[in-house]
Write a structure and sequence with these properties.
By secondary structure, the chain is α/β, with parallel strands linked by helices. It has 5 helices and 8 strands; from the N terminus they run E-H-E-H-E-H-H-E-E-H-E-E-E.
Length: 162
């Protein structure tokens, strides 16, 4: 079945293919290699926020990250999220993808290349290597539950306000 087929079926769909969406798709693909994973993003060009973060160098994380670094949300929930995937695990994950990091002022971690493109290419490359089907220009507009599954409606074209 073609991805252009409006009735394409996937086991897992990820909406939003920024850093978190790409990482999610990678983790699911690693854990469930027999599953079909589809990642949709409204933007025609992937990774715009990654490419501008850290002045185009991509501040991936910090050596120390605490719940106090976040505004809003439950500190208890934030603490649990941070404990589930630590800064050390983040560095190890990117090392697996071939992205080495270095520490700069205030404990900020940047890729050794000092290029955000390195981070984006590593994430997209790993997702594609694992068989994740990435569809830029497909903004999810509706999700409906149907007979124990979900139907995802996407506006094809991308870069629309949302």
């Amino acid at each position: 079945m073609s991805l252009d087929d409006p009735s394409f079926v996937a086991d897992v769909a990820v909406g939003g293919v920024g850093a978190a969406g790409l990482a999610t798709a990678i983790f699911v693909a690693r854990r469930c290699p027999s599953r079909t994973i589809l990642a949709l993003d409204g933007a025609k060009q992937l990774g715009a926020k990654i490419l501008v973060s850290g002045g185009g160098r991509c501040n991936v994380t910090n050596v120390t990250v605490t719940p106090a670094d976040f505004c809003g949300g439950s500190p208890h929930v934030i603490r649990r999220v941070l404990a589930a995937f630590t800064a050390e695990q983040t560095v190890a994950f990117f090392r697996e993808l071939g992205v080495e990091m270095h520490v700069e002022e205030y404990g900020k971690l940047f890729p050794d290349t000092n290029r955000a493109r390195t981070v984006l290419d590593a994430l997209v490359g790993e997702a594609e290597r694992l068989g994740v089907r990435i569809l830029p220009g497909h903004r999810v507009t509706q999700i409906e539950r149907m007979d124990g599954s979900f139907e995802i409606i996407a506006d094809i074209g991308g870069d629309s306000p949302g």
